[in-house]
Prior knowledge:
Order of helices and strands: HEEHHHH
Amino acid sequence: MPASTPRPHVMALLFDTDFNRPWGARTFRHLDGRPFTDEEQGLADDATLEELQAAGVHDPEAGAEAKAAAHQMAELLFKYVLPHREALIPFMTHEDMLEYGRLETIVAAGAHRLRPHKD
């Protein structure tokens, strides 16, 4: 299926949108701080993926998915790195070795207190 052509009026609105809104806020604002009208908000809500991508807007869900994947990847790496950490030392700078040693001491001292958070 061919991609839809971005609508000029929607693109103009998206380029004048401040997407840094507080978590949970529903209404966007213009770059000058003015809140969107109901009509403008409707246009932004109905923007297609192609229009959002053309305006350089990232998908917040994709960001959350990337963050979760980064955590999973780090856990996977830790699975192999921690038992063989001595193999990393030849690749570390002197400063990194000192920092690693400092952090390792902190982790070892508090390991018995590490528990999952209960929110």
